[in-house]
């Protein structure tokens, strides 16, 4: 999440989805109804029988690098990043308490009365606070979702006014959780570097003091899930994203693979990881930042807690020399400042992979 754009954007009335279903459980206002080609609910048979996204066992990657199991899992990781841009990790070693606790406080936050949540408003044109981000006009369609987003690290990106005093344990839990997520992201980036044949600290050395943000997405049930989307299709602007789905989570996340929306089936105690735009650029497109979206469910709510991990805003990003070859694999992206990219990302609506046009070299 970049420094906040100052703006006087007119976004019209943004109805709070939780309040909406309390007062009119069977009504879906016009502004949430998607054009026919964008709708979420209808899942084709082809989608149902699609291969599931890869699962990476992090306990295998804790073994000595010379061990066959380690090498096998690194190969799996490399395939996952190239072919899917998404994978789930199991045996990640995160304390159950930390994972459970953030889920609990996030739920408690969303269950508070609207007036309480509105003490932390997401202002139009910004990306932190409670509400809906990425809305830039009065006629733009809305997502069937309430969001609460916060910049976490470095502390300079925190807006203390937006860190809630209720639930009482929220800030403490988020700090503890974010610390663990930071360790996990650093660890995953070392494996990703190894899988590319690079030295393990290659990303960390480049990223400087990495930027970390969190977004909690709460998707209330929708009486017509086939008409709406929980979250518009997009790729993430981060280097790496970690998504935690609440324990009782139904299927909601879908990724675009071979022109088909493939559902990500929640696995117990797993986290979903995806490659963001930054790693796509750094690897000159070898590892993909894949378009994804969320759909809603007729009966059940869904909660996700999403961590975005990215380089410091000061860092210059361009495809790494090791992954460019003028003859066989020419450079596909221009060089840019990561802060400029983050600003570009948050000042445009979510629209598939369009944000990356910012850096693409068009032939
Ligand atoms: C995101 C995201 C998907 C989900 O927050 O960037 O892709 O299922 N979320 O909540
Ligand atoms: Ni995303």
From TrEMBL:
Lineage: Eukaryota, Viridiplantae, Streptophyta, Embryophyta, Tracheophyta
Entry's family note: Belongs to the iron/ascorbate-dependent oxidoreductase family.
Domain (Fe2OG dioxygenase): residue spans on this chain: 202-311
UniProt entry tagged with the keyword Metal-binding: yes
Keywords: Iron, Metal-binding, Oxidoreductase
Domain of life per record: Eukaryota
Transmembrane spans: none
Keyword Iron appears in the UniProt entry: yes
Protein's recorded name: Fe2OG dioxygenase domain-containing protein
Xref: InterPro entries: DIOX_N (IPR026992), IPNS-like_FE2OG_OXY (IPR044861), IPNS-like_sf (IPR027443), Oxoglu/Fe-dep_dioxygenase_dom (IPR005123), Plant_2OG-oxidoreductases (IPR050295)
């Amino acid at each position: 999440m970049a420094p906040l754009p100052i703006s006087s954007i007119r976004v019209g009335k943004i109805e709070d989805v939780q309040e909406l279903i309390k007062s009119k459980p069977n009504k879906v206002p016009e502004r949430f109804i998607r054009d026919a080609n964008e709708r979420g609910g209808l899942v084709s048979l082809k989608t149902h029988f699609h291969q599931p996204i890869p699962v990476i066992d992090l306990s295998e990657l804790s073994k000595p690098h010379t061990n066959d199991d380690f090498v096998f899992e690194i190969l799996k990781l490399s395939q996952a990043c190239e072919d899917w841009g998404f994978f789930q990790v199991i045996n990640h070693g995160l304390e159950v308490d930390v994972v459970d606790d953030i889920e609990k406080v996030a739920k408690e936050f969303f269950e508070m009365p609207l007036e309480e949540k509105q003490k932390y408003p997401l202002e139009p044109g910004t990306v932190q606070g409670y509400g809906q981000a990425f809305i830039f006009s009065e006629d733009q369609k809305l997502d069937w979702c309430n969001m609460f987003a916060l910049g976490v690290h470095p502390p300079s990106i925190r807006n203390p006014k937006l860190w809630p005093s209720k639930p009482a344990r929220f800030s403490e839990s988020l700090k503890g959780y974010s610390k663990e997520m930071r360790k996990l992201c650093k660890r995953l980036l070392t494996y990703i570097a190894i899988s590319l044949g690079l030295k393990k600290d290659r990303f960390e050395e480049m990223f400087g003091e990495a930027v970390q943000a969190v977004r909690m997405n709460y998707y209330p049930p929708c009486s017509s899930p086939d008409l709406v989307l929980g979250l518009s299709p997009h790729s993430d602007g981060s280097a790496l994203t970690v998504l935690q789905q609440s324990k009782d989570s139904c299927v909601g996340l879908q990724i675009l693979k071979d022109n088909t929306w493939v559902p990500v089936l929640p696995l117990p105690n797993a986290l979903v990881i995806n490659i963001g735009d930054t790693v796509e650029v750094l690897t000159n497109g070898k590892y993909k930042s894949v378009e994804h979206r969320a759909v809603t469910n007729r009966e059940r709510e869904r909660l996700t807690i999403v961590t975005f991990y990215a380089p410091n805003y000061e860092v210059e990003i361009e495809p790494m020399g090791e992954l460019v070859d003028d003859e066989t694999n020419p450079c596909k992206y221009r060089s840019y400042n990561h802060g400029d990219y983050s600003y570009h990302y948050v000042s445009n609506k979510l629209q598939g992979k369009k944000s990356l046009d910012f850096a693409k070299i068009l032939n």
